[in-house]
Amino acid sequence: MPDLARRGLPILALMLAAHPFLAVTIPPATDLPQHVAQVGLLGEALAGRAPELAVNWIAPGNLGYAAVALAGAVLPPFAAGRVALMLVVLAGVAAAWIVAERRGRPIGAVVLAAALAFNHSLYWGFLPFLAGWPVFLAWVHAVSPASPRPVTARRTALLAGLGLLLYASHALWLAAGVAWVTLETVRRPPAGGGIAARAAALLPAAALAALWYPAMAAARAEGGFDVDAHWFTTPLARLDPRWLADAMLGGIRGPVEAVVAAGVAAWVALGLRTRRRDLREACDGPLVAAGLLLVAVALLGPDKYLNTLEFGGRWFPIGVSLLLLGLPAPAVREWLAGAAAAALLAALSASTTLAWMRFEHEDLSGLAGAIEAVPAGSRVLGLDMVKQSDVVKGRPFVQAPAWVEPVRGARPAFSFAEHSTGLVTRTDTRAPPWTANLEWAAEHVKPSDFGYFDHVIVNGADAVHAGAAASRELEPVTTTGRWRLYRVVSNGMRSKSPHRPNR
Fold this sequence. Notes:
The protein is α/β, with parallel strands linked by helices. It has helices spanning about 5-20, 30-45, 65-70, 75-105, 105-115, 120-125, 125-145, 155-170, 170-185, 195-220, 240-250, 255-275, 280, 285-300, 315-325, 335-365, 365-370, 405-410, 460-470, and strands at about 55, 305, 310, 380-385, 410, 425, 455-460, 475, 485-490. The protein has 2 domains: about 5-360, no CATH class; about 365-490, no CATH class.
């Protein structure tokens, strides 16, 4: 492939990966408002305006907040969240490009891996986890470089720095890094003190994890969080092609994701078949080993553990991306393989852009107006009576009311500050006096719950809003869209003055 095309394809992949983020104001990433709020709370804590807040400097998961802080320094909260998420995705695409160039891997694999960035972890808004993908890829490359490297103090320090970045991105990434380096050491024992160097490089991150993990596990157990391991689907059921396609992407509804997943499978199958005579030489062993490890975790691991959603499944698109980079491309002209990969990514990018625009126009109608109408400092309850979307998969509305915290300085009913794993936590947390878990099960709300809040944001159909507007406890503030704001009426007594709702 000509150098111009080899450079042009990854640049095209970066542009196509960025496009959906540039088309909307609020991307469908469930946890995103909570992550944006964390950076705002950090500012409050550092300024001394919130003594009830504590900063967890040594907790894992803080690396992703650097992107939020960077974007938030020049952009308002809605835009900062969207741009931060885009920067994290683009960092993963760029890392795959750099590693592919340095290891001589097929450039079409970089383009296909860019498509897999639009996976269910992105739609859940797992920002810290997503930030760990480029770090893990750099870790795999540094531990097993394309050409032999001598064991030196400088190299050990480099690995130690990457180990700390793995920990800083997410505790699960540190665990994955340790698991992979153990597998790689058994598979290809290094010479000349390499084992000792790898162990020494992991010591700083392991020490931080040893300080953090016991307190986190205890806090989650004491806080009433479900910390047990749960398998909602059996390992055998995960071999179903439908599960595999959904685990590979799992973001938007419709046929496009299945087409892309089939294209990825065809790429792998054709590569293995057409290069079967020189398969060992055509493969990159460390990348393949890392990919197989993560795919195994996805197929065998629990769906939920320590209150962490998608505990196992989140590894599948990462593992497949590593396999794409490590396995040979189909033995056809490189420009043809690259063009086919670009066509799949372009189709997914276009479909994702249209889906996100529809989601914002329909499913999030009224949300921005309701958020902006919340008075600063209010206590706000969010009630999602819709739950599912016809456009995107998962539970995209669970944390949407939490935008009141970064945008208006209000306090939502649930904040990630009540977790022990966030950048910022509250030291005054206790079991809420209102019905628990209303962000997940709004149908369990009771009239007595409203008394603990100043305002309520409701996501519902017209019939739901008609019932809310007619209740004694709520008074409409905004009256259009699926999302509407209500003021809580003290003692159920309506205001005597004529009310003019904001539109």
